[in-house]
Amino acid sequence: MHYEESGKKLPVRQFDVVVAGAGTAGVVAAVAAARTGAKIALVEVKGYPGGVVVEGGTALHSFYNLWKGFPGVEKRQVVRGIAQEIVDRLAEREGTSGHAEMLKGYDYDSVCTAIDTELYKLVAFEMLEEAGVHIFMNTMLTGAVTDGSQIQAVTVESRSGREAFFAPAFVDCTGYGDLAAHAGAEFTEPNDYAVANSIGVGGVSMEKYHEFLTAHGTVTEYSEGRRSGKDGRIVRLSGHLMPSEFTAGAGAIGMAVVTTTVHDDYFMFIKLNFQMPTSPTNRDEATKAELELRRRQVKAVELFRKHVPGCEKAFIARTSPSLCIRRGRLITCDYDISLDDVLEGRHFDDDVMAYGFHDCAPSLQIKDGGTYGIPLASLRVTGIDNLLVAGMMITADHDAHMSTRNTVCCMGQGQAVGTAAALCAKLGCATRDLPYPQLRTALQRGGVYFEK
Ligand SMILES: Cc1cc2nc3c(=O)[nH]c(=O)nc-3n(C[C@H](O)[C@H](O)[C@H](O)COP(=O)(O)OP(=O)(O)OC[C@H]3O[C@@H](n4cnc5c(N)ncnc54)[C@H](O)[C@@H]3O)c2cc1C
């Protein structure tokens, strides 16, 4: 059965670029676009910016190349620009560990950049405001008005009603690929990852947890950085946990016990995972997953309380407002980054950034601790003239995606698409006709690093 909605006249607003989604990539995209002087609309369904970077993760992977795993390889900061500015702003508020060198587990990542998730939201909000972005929080992007291969406008909905935002250029940073899907882009839904809802756990002692893991000889990841205003404190910790009752319990609820923190008595992220039977775009299955994950959160804290010294008074201090996805829709773009491109450290004629981290290191890692390039073509939506995407919705190959999906890569992609979309709007050209030298110059001015 269907109910036929009657047509409505919507209020119209005009912008140079509309960015959908103020998450990991979208914040950076909107700031980058606004800094060119363009008039930017940023549409976000939640009441704060940040997305999965403040809800799902452990640490920001990674600003650096994997130098520690390769004796003789030079230490290089690979992602800079606006992503680094966010970390600098967090540091001013004691909201980050800084780029703390990994002392154990450095064949995975050479640094641990841990964040205060709440301060990240504020810092991102302030940067958007300072850049002059027109920010629309609690506003959902609900549709696209298209004319052939061109998007004319998007429809958005909030408690202020339905509106249409017109613009010559659009950026989809919704993670789910909502704008691309509404605009008729090709996509698939691989459902190749578990969904998660991570918790912040209070009333715990990182030091006692460390002693416990050390006593069992099972510390696998360890890093010291800035915590509660003091340097040289534990900021990242992971290990195979004993006793077996804990390990079995953790396995049953999909709990990953790696944690980071920037505060005393707090684990910033403990992740609970759940493999859905369908793609997370299925509302009814997602509802079941939301409930299951909340049950798992309580069990996780019970396990810590019962088995881990220093955690007897553990409690849930933060949850994500809804489940976090690692992949929703995979949007078809003009180029698809392959695993070979990543592992061989391949660069392209239309590179918009360099990146040097793989989530499966040391099993899969970029050749010689180097970098590979993200080409603009991998962010350009096939069949649509004025839409760019950034974030978790690119890269078909699961193992290649295990690199491109990481936060710092998404942030770098955000700077690229924001800058490119604003240039397209200014020049009045389609994304495929944007002169690359102009984009490259603008990105270099914005502090983007391109070296192999
Ligand atoms: C559990 C988990 C743990 C992870 N751990 C790490 C880690 O330790 N380190 C790391 O580097 N990476 C990690 N990742 C990966 C990384 O966090 C994500 O891939 C990355 O943050 C995705 O960024 P994004 O910009 O694509 O999406 P998001 O950050 O999710 O941004 C999407 C934004 O769009 C908004 N939105 C969605 N639909 C609409 C709509 N229709 N209208 C308006 N707004 C909309 C959302 O509310 C959100 O704010 C993890 C991911 C998960 C899920």
Automatic annotation (TrEMBL):
GO terms for molecular function: 4 iron, 4 sulfur cluster binding; metal ion binding; oxidoreductase activity. InterPro entries: FAD/NAD-bd_sf, HdrA-like. Coiled coil: none annotated. The keyword Protein transport does not apply. Pfam families: FAD_oxidored. Keywords: 4Fe-4S, Iron, Iron-sulfur, Metal-binding, Oxidoreductase. This is FAD-dependent oxidoreductase 2 FAD binding domain-containing protein.
